[in-house]
Request: fold
Amino acid sequence: MAGTVIDQLIVKLGLDPRDFTRGEKAAAAETVKLEKQVEKSGQNMGASFVGLTRKVLGVATAALAIKKGLEIISDLSSGLRQLGIDSQALGISASELRNFGNVAEMMGGKAEDVTKTVGGLTKAVYDLAYNGQISDSLIMLGRLGVKFQDTTGAARDFKSIAMDTQTAIQTAMARGTSKENALQMIAQAGFDPGLSRAMVEGTLGAQLARQGQRRQVTASNLESAKTLEQAKTSALQSARTAGERGFDVAAKAETAVMRGAEYATDLAAGTQELNISMGHLRDTVPGLNTAIEATADLFESIAKRLDRSNPDNFPRGRQAYEATIQNAAKKFGLDPEVLAGMLGTESGFNPSARNAKSGATGIAQLMPKYFPNAGKNPYNDIYTAAEELKRLKDRHLADGNDDAAATYLALQSYNAGDARLRGSMKPGGKPLNKETIEYPEKVLGYARDAAPTPSAQNNTQNRTDITFEQVTIQTNGKDGDRIATDFVDGTRRKLNAAQADGGMQ
Reply:
């Protein structure tokens, strides 16, 4: 054979055979050994065993594919069902809530934050009308001249309030209000970051109009999602049962082959060479059971490798995140070596890093209470850390510091918190601890000592294109973990793009 059955399977999945341990290849080795023994005693018997092996692998592949497919469908239906629940609770149509969420995500925000924005505004108007309590968000809307109640005291619709807020902010910016202050004003009015950025750019109306041209969510869609969610458990059980039946068929095929081997032995009783060959065959048959078990273990291992919701499956080291560091630094106007130095100092480029004392997590050691998705995806964490460092630096630049001093103070603020740093500067303030004082020098020292790295443009010269089932993924990886990461992330991006074209984000 040109290669083992298991190597062919790995290549079929678009992975690197070198990424799997010798133990994981034991199933293929046993199969090949058995096939060679069978070839000595007849081509027909050999073909039977080869067919059996392929059938076992085919059943396992089908079972895994069914499970993954049902999980994807389940995720889509769960999201659509939740959209229906939120829209009904907040008194806003599912389509409009979905459209606002899409705009927020296109501006770098999150759809779930839009839901919180609508809920917060609804509660604030209710508390004012029935409890006489006025929130900071309503005070800011009032200062901007935005009406949030109609003549009866009821809350105006969310879209009208959002569009009026954008008009007020654009007027304030035309009179000299900075973009940063405008964002702060919108945030104080209770809006999420994604919609805030759209308002500052003045594109909220145009983006909502484009979203309105896409297929909208209907009551039928919401009911179908509810039904599909309820059917998920029974569907997964059916898939499991089908897989078990498939392996039962394979076991019966194995029994049939073994009986055929015994019959061949009886026919060849007078030939010493054939007797020896069949003796080898009988000794090797138990290895087939081992091969089947090892194949099942292998598929479980592959499924775990493809699970990118687990931070432990992401690679470690700067090289794996170099392109993301360069892109994030460029987007937020930072020195990439300073950003890399901060990540190296915080976690040593380990996306699974955890601080049991402070609760900080992930490659950038972000605090989940301030950044709810911290530690879930290192690529997202790098952009979040870069944006936070940029925000802190801009605040210190606004205080009159030069670029170097602002960078130094921003790093201390990242380590200890900006309020803690500013408190230490006040008369009688609590001094900073040694870790915070020395933190900037550690980061900047890393930046000074870092070896030159190839630019993202040069890296494209070593890029490899992997094509599987008409899907092409670009990767710079040279090892199995990195290639598998790029393959799975790439296919998920293409799945998201396909969903977007269908209007079902």
User: Anything to note?
Assistant: The longest helix spans residues 219-267. The radius of gyration is 30 Å. The chain is about 70% helix and 0% strand. The first strand starts at residue 464 and ends at 468.
